[in-house]
Every structure is written in C-alpha cells, then in structure tokens.
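Notes from the 1:1 (GR / supervisor)

We went over the backlog. Supervisor wanted to see one worked example end to end before approving the batch request, so GR pasted a single chain during the call. The sequence is below; no edits were made to it. Supervisor asked that the structure be written out right there so they could see what the output format looks like.
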Amino acid sequence: MRIVHTLLFMLREKFYEEDLIMAGKCFETLSRSDENTVVIYNKGSLDNATLKEFLNPFNIKYHILGDGRNIGIPQARQKCFEYVWGKYPETPYISEIHLDMLFPTNWYSELIQYLENNDEPLISPGIITATGDVFPKGNGNYDLPKEVNEVLGLLERISEDKVIQGFVHPVIHRVSTLKSVGGYDVNFLTGMQAYEDDSLLLGYLYFMGTRTNWYPKVCFKSFVYHAYMGQRITLENIQDEHRKNLEGLFHQYGAKGLKQLSNLHILDARDHFKELYELNIYEKKDN
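Structure output shown during the call:
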C-alpha cells in the first residue's frame, strides 16, 4: 500500500443535508481509486454506528477514530497520523483530505511520482473551488459543471506538467519526514483550529534546512475539486481558538518563524504573516 488517506468527519449544523450529500459524493469518488484506505476521525454530527452505516455502501476500506466529540483540528489530525504510523508502518505516504472534495481516479499517482523523483516532504495538487476558481494560481475561472463525472472530466482536462510555489489541501506527506518533524505538536497548538498547517510547514522548513530556501509546492499534473477553500466549521469563541494557536505558533517558532512563513506562503497569507512579524517587532520596540 503506497498511501493512506486521513479525513476529519464533521457536518455543519446549518447545512447538514447539503454536507451529507457532499460527503457521499466525496467517498464515492474516492472509492474509484485503487488505493482508498481512509482513516476517519469522527468529530461529531453522527455517532460511530450511524457513521458506519453511512460508509458501508462505498467501496472503501475505512477506520473510524474518535467518538463524535470535536477535539479540534490539530489533535484529530495528529491522532489520524499516529494511527496510520502504528497500523500501516510500511506505508510511505499519507494524505489529508476533506469532506467537500471530489477526486479523479488515482488522483494521488502523479503526486506520489513527483515525491519519488524529488526531495520534497509534501506536495499538493491544484484545486478548483465551487466558484470555478483555480488555486493556488489565483487566476483563471471555469464554468463548473453540475454532474460529478463532468467535474471530474474537467479536472483531468486542465492538468498540466507544471509545478509552482503554493500550499493547499488535499496534501500528500512523505511519512518518513512527517514522523521526523512529529506532525502537529498539540503541546503548542492548544486551540481548536488555525495555524496548524503553518506550524507543520515551519517544521518541514527546518528539516530541509533554511539554506535550501525550501518552500511548499503544487503539482498541476493532478487537480482535485475542493468546494470551499479555507472553510472552517463555525465554533463558539472562534477568535479565542485562533489566538491560542497563534500564541502556540509564536512560542514554538518565535518572530523569526512568522517572518519565514511570509516567504513560504503566497498572496494574502504572505501579507498576513509579514504583518504579524512587523507587529511583533513594533511591540518589542515599544516595550
């Protein structure tokens, strides 16, 4: 087995039926690929028995973790990683996928081939969103078909032999490197969500060595439909949860880490971390 997929299962309360339908489409398209083992962390909406009933019709091999309680993104993702490391110790790649995604058959194959031919810790495909926008290009717009098979056909047609700077989900990790950096450090990431990907990217940067000027990359030989890029489940006290993880990121990597994130990212995220770094410098001078 070359790859095991990991996924956090949670449906939005206000869009329950819509999300459940999308989840069905996600698993149906995932089942078309040759390697469709998925570790699912149940963060809520369905109890485990009901979740199993929902998953059984799909031609996938699944493992369910959790008990329907939302423990937050960093902890749930890390538990998925650790389960794969223990259950499938010889598997060289792990993906992080989402419920609002559609996958062309064997979408991961070109990405794995890229990792096998290049010294990289992770790789992402290009994505098209529900609005027809392409990321991380930030330009280009398509009239998105309504039928699943037509969407998958579009994803395959627009693929090209091109690699650019960027980071999106889904993402495929090289397991050996992921284990070396430890995955998501929940000792620092104590909030429910936000900045967990940034913490991991900095871990990869230091693993690769800052002298290499490493940055995350997207390979356009593979495209995946991701309905809502950057979507977050609505939570109470969401700003407080973000603050916890930002503070954890800062305690883990310091102001230098914020500055380096401004180089790892593109577009709005680059400006965000540049502003955070400069704000920290100004506060330091004021004190």
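Supervisor's comment: The beta strands are 3-9, 37-42, 61-65, 93-97, 101-102, 122-128, 134-135, 163-165, 171-174, 217-226.
Batch request approved.
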